[in-house]
Amino acid sequence: MQQVFARPESLKDVQTHFCPGCQHGTVHRLVAEALDQFGVQQKTIGVASVGCSVFLYGYFDIDVVEAPHGRAPAVATGVKRARPDSFVFTYQGDGDLAAIGTAEIIHAANRGEDITVIFVNNTTYGMTGGQMAPTTLVGQKTSTSPYGRNKAKDGAPIRMAEVLAQLGGVAYSARVAVDSPKHVLEAKKVIKRAFQFQAEGKGFSFVEVLSSCPTNWGMNPLAANKRIGDEMIPYFPLGVFKNEEQ
Amino acid sequence: MGRIEIDEIRCKGCGICTVACPKQLVKLCDKANIQGYTPAEAVNQELCTGCALCAEICPDVAIKVFR
After folding, report:
1. pLDDT tier, A246 (very low <50, low <70, confident <90, very high otherwise)
2. CA nearest to A94, candidates A152, A29, A163
3. Chain A closest CA to B43's CA: distance in Å?
4. Which residue out of A5, A178, A184 would a mutagenesis test of the B interface target, given it has the greatest number of B Cβ atoms within 10 Å?
5. Are A118 and A49 in contact (CB under 8 A)?
6. How many structural domains compose chain B?
7. ipTM above 0.85, yes or no
8. How far is C-alpha A54 from the chain's CA centre?
9. A202 CB contacts (<8 Å, ≥6 apart)?
10. For B19-54, what is each residue's pLDDT tens digit?
11. Res A222: pLDDT
12. d(Cα A160, Cα A235) in Å, to the nearest integer?
């Protein structure tokens, strides 16, 4: 028998700090597999955000810069412009990208920087204690919305993949989920596609990944995983919103 | 024919693999590991096809698949 599934080379063989059932680990693996496939491990510079994704440097066997909260796309812009031969991606959560770093992501996308952004959306601020994020679903209880998100007061959840697809500099924008093996396999293809855009120098590529946060949702891992399909996907539809082949 | 190996030290016992296996060949065991979680274990391995769906869904990359 041959081994048909193994840990990717770009992912260190270490224990992660993620809670049981947290899908950051799955997204880490998909990104590492894509880096392995393109053979760019040695020239990749990852930009980590603030949040549970902050320990990127501990889990990936690549060079990583840690950006201030929300500023990963701005840091990645600098890295890519200074080292145009390098392969640059940011890995951000929804509190980081959709709230604190809105200015940075919008303008990096609009400028069409030749970077890839992996955006993990779990509808809450994970590491800081489950506060309401711009992506929190209407009615969802969080530590700062104990009666549930109120649309009249707090607005509707922001759909970042669609928002960014409107911008001229964006070459590729898609949304995937990692709640079932089928969705994980699709996510793998989409992440590779996004990296392909950068490998060919075609401009800004963006992938939003719907994932769960069992701890801050107050659910067990299986119930949290099911919530992605039951509540998140109906509001955040999966698909490719921009695919500009040039 | 297939076979899986679950790293019982790494596994955090989230149980997502138990519903991902089309043949329900993965179960959580009763004994806690060094982290204090009850890890997954493979049962009836002779029925395993090596489809690797359990490994694809595992957030901790704790499953190796052979086919």
Report:
1. low
2. A163
3. 18
4. A5
5. no
6. 1
7. yes
8. 12
9. A114, A171, A172, A244, A245, A246
10. 999 999 999 999 999 999 999 999 999 999 999 999
11. 97
12. 12
Maximum distance among all Cα pairs of chain B, rounded to whole angstroms:
32
Give pLDDT tens digits for A20-67: 999 999 999 999 999 999 999 999 999 999 999 999 999 999 999 999
Query: What backbone torsions phi and psi does residue A35 show, to the nearest 5 degrees?
Result: -60, -40
Handedness of CA A219, A222, A227, A230 (dihedral sign): negative
Domain at B22, CATH number: 3.30.70.20
State which residues form the domain around B14.
3-66
Residue-level pLDDT at A210: 98
CB spacing of B14 vs A4 below 8 angstroms = no
* Percentage above 70 pLDDT, chain A: 100
Domains of chain A: 24-243 (3.40.50.970)
Q: Tell me how many residue pairs between chain A and chain B have CB atoms under 8 A apart.
A: 70
- Kindly list the residues from chain B whose CB atom is less than 8 angstroms away from the CB atom of residue A4: 50, 52, 65-67
Q: Which residues pair with A136 in a beta bridge?
A: none
The CB-based long-range contact list for A136-141 (8 Å cut-off, 24+ gap) reads A137/A231, A137/A232, A137/A235, A141/A218
The verdict on a CB contact (< 8 Å) between A1 and B56 is no
Contact list in A for residue B10 (CB cut-off 8 A) is 15
